[in-house]
Amino acid sequence: MGAAVGGWPVLSAMAWGSRVQSVGRGAGGGGAASRLCPKSGTVAALGIGLGNGTTRMNALIVGGTAGIGRAVAVALARRGENVVITGRNAERTAGIAREIGLGVTGLALDLTRPLEVAAALAGLGQVDHLVLAAIERDQNSVRNYDVARALSLVTMKLVGYTEVVHTLLPRMTPATSIVLLGGQAKNRPYPGSITVSTVNGGVESMVRALAVELAPIRVTALHPGIVSDTDSWSGKPQVLDAARAGTLTGRLATTDDVARATLFLLDNPAINGVNLDLEGGRLLK
Ligand SMILES: NC(=O)c1ccc[n+]([C@@H]2O[C@H](COP(=O)([O-])OP(=O)(O)OC[C@H]3O[C@@H](n4cnc5c(N)ncnc54)[C@H](OP(=O)(O)O)[C@@H]3O)[C@@H](O)[C@H]2O)c1
Hints:
With 285 residues, this protein is an alpha/beta fold.
């Protein structure tokens, strides 16, 4: 675990110490980090890939083998970032990375085992963009409560996401940005969503706490409603029709919509500590 890094620079502990400014030392300009990171305000700093090799940011997409995470990985790789995706199985993840192409590489990581996260990520160098999108959906209810499944999802999204940030913090710079995926189950529970609703509510609070603790690193979250072309929902036309009818726009978000919103949150230097709903105005109807 933690070995397949491909084009992303892997720093030894010694190289790390000499090349990358720890965020703990403050954002006060100059220093080693300014040689490594794009200057604020340049096109590259806004994450608009130049495609000429001038700036290649490093992006880690946790839960990048499928659905939203995969769409974000493709979008970031297309604009020229060095992208590493994670999934639970090393071989499968490497295969999906090869399938995506664009220099994307894979890494095995299981967030239900947070004590193993540090070892899994040991091979990575500087992190400019971090997207936390992993989930293993838990159909659960209070009346038929499956404690093992609930523990797994709570560990993954609340402890696991936090442990990834904790582990990578020394490899972040003041310009690093982080996006977490929550979801509208926090506002609109559905039958079987007790754990999903709970953890997505936790993500909402976590984002604010992370933004305060990690400043000037920016931390935001995206909370889509039903994303119509994901494996979770695409085969459920009745659910999709009902959800669509509940929106003001008459359409549901797609993975492409979510990927574009993620890039906006990663890039825009003025947005921080925000939980962005992406649900076509459903909450207003
Ligand atoms: N789909 C929606 O409609 C929707 C709506 C609102 C919010 N969201 C949120 O958006 C995010 C992505 O959802 P999605 O539907 O696109 O997910 P998905 O297609 O089910 O993909 C889940 C990803 O998480 C990884 N994963 C699963 N278990 C893991 C574990 N124990 N440790 C680490 N990684 C694990 C999977 O990798 P492997 O299977 O390869 O291991 C995969 O890459 C989630 O946070 C979800 O809550 C989704």
